[in-house]
Amino acid sequence: MSNLFTSVGDHPFDRAMAMEPAGANQFATRASKDYWNMVGPYGGITAAQMAQAVLQHPDRLGELVAITVNFAGAVGEGEVVIEAIPARTNRSTQHWIITMREKDAQGHWSTTTTATAMTALARKTWSDDECAMPQVPPSGEVARYVTDFRVEWLSRYNVRPLLGSYPEQWDGAISPSLTRMWVSDEPPRPLDVQALTALCDVFFPRIWLRRAKRVPIGTVTFSVYFHASEDELRQVGSEPVLAQAQGQGFRDGFFDQTAQIWAPGGTLLATSHQLVYYKE
Amino acid sequence: MSNLFTSVGDHPFDRAMAMEPAGANQFATRASKDYWNMVGPYGGITAAQMAQAVLQHPDRLGELVAITVNFAGAVGEGEVVIEAIPARTNRSTQHWIITMREKDAQGHWSTTTTATAMTALARKTWSDDECAMPQVPPSGEVARYVTDFRVEWLSRYNVRPLLGSYPEQWDGAISPSLTRMWVSDEPPRPLDVQALTALCDVFFPRIWLRRAKRVPIGTVTFSVYFHASEDELRQVGSEPVLAQAQGQGFRDGFFDQTAQIWAPGGTLLATSHQLVYYKE
C-alpha cells in the first residue's frame, strides 16, 4: 500500500478512516497509532473502519442503519485488508458481510475482525424517542476528566463525567455500573456516522465500575443502531453528545453493556450494546 | 435433501432444528411450517436455525455466547442451505460467519439471512446479575393469553402476560412499550440454547404497543447474548421464563428493542436486542 492518501482531512480520525482499493470489495489500511490502546487499536476505531469500508464502497445503497462488529483476534501494526461484500441488495435496503484480515507471524492472512451491517435509503415516518435524555447540566458547566490512565486513544476524546465516573478507590465495593458523560472528539470534529460508531465504544469497562476492581477485559462483539440520519448528525456539529452506559449481567467470563447517545438537544442518536470478556 | 432425519425429537421445535450435511460447512434444511408467520417463518426460528448450524458443526469449540442474525430477504418454503464457517478459532473462543441461501424465482441461490456468532469454552468466574428480575406473580397464578391473531408460530408458545400486553384498543394513544410476560414452549420442552434464541424474538412489535396502531413491520437485525451456561439452562427445564422487552427509539422507519430473559428463580439467562423496520 502506498503512503499517499487522497481526500483525507487533517483530523486524526479522518486519517484513521483512510483506505485504498485493493481488489474487488477489498480495501487496504492499517490501525491508527493515534487511537492505540494498550496492546492494539481502540476497538471503537476498528469498528469505525469496518463501517467506513461499507460507507466508501462504490456499490453502497443508502445510509448506515445498523452494524455489529466481532473482535475475533488481535489487530497489530501491519497492513490490514478489509473486505466488504454486499450480500443482499433489495430495493431500499442492503446487507453487508465485512471481514478484516492481517498477516500473522507465519505470514498467513488471518481474520482479526468480522462484521455485518445494514444500509437503507432514508425516508421520513412517524417518530418518537421513548428513551428520553436524562436531565443533566449542559456540557459547558462540566469539567473535563483528566486521567492518569495513559493510552493514546483516550487523548482523542474530551470526556466530561456526570455520573458513574472512573473509580477513585479500588476497594471491591459493588456499585451500579451506570455512567453518564458528555463526550466529543478531541480536537473537535463535526459528528458523522463513522465517528459515532467509534464513540459508542468510549465507555471504560462496566465491570471495573461494578466491582471497583480492574480485571483484564476485551470486547468480543459490539453493535450500534443508528437512530439519527446523516442530516441529524450534521446538525450536532462538533458539540459534545451525552453518552450513557450500563451493564445488565456479569457471568462466568462475559458481561454485557447497553448504551445510549443523545444530541445536546435531546435527540436519541444511537443505541449500542456489547459483550465483553473478563478474566477473573 | 432426503426426508429422513436422524436423532430428532417429537417436539415441533426439534423438527424445526433438523438439518443434514450438504458439503463443507453446509447444511440443508427448510423453514418449519409449525413456526410459520404471515408470509414466511417466525424470525426467532430462523435465528435458531442459524445457531443450530454452529451448534451441530463438527468443528465447534465451546458453548454459544453471542449471536447476531440479519434478516436480509424473505425465507420461503423451499430448501435452504446454511453455511457456517469458523472464521477464527482461538484457544478458548471461536468466531463464526453464517449465511442462509435459498433458490429465488429465477433459480439462483440468493442470500436470505446473514449472521455472526461466537462460541467459548465454559469457565467459572466472579458473577453478578445487575439487572434484577422484576417482582411478579409466579407463572402458575397468571392466565394464558388467548389471541385472535392467527399465525401458526404463536401456537408454539404459552404466553402469560403481566404488563404491556397486546393492545385491546387501537386508538393511537401513546404508551410505554414495556412488556413483561411468562413464556414457555408449547407443548413444554426443556430449555436449551437453540430454544432460548428463538424465544428472545417472541415479543409482539414494540411500535404496536407504543402507538396503539398496527403498522407493517419486520425485524432486520437481532442479537442474543447468552449469560447462562448450558448447565444453567438445563436447570430451568420446561418451566416458564420471565421475558421483558422495551423500545428506546422509533425514528424514520426503524425502531429498536432491548429484552431480558430470566429463569423463574431470578437468574438472568439472556439479554437481547433488535432493530425493526416499520412502514408508516
TrEMBL record, chains A, B:
Signal peptide: none annotated. Residues 34-118 form the Acyl-CoA thioesterase-like N-terminal HotDog domain. InterPro entries: ACOT8-like_C, Acyl-CoA_hotdog, HotDog_dom_sf, TesB_ACOT8-like_N. Residues 144-277 form the Acyl-CoA thioesterase-like C-terminal domain. It holds the Pfam family 4HBT_3C. This is Thioesterase family protein. It comes from Comamonas odontotermitis. The lineage of its organism: Bacteria, Pseudomonadati, Pseudomonadota, Betaproteobacteria, Burkholderiales.
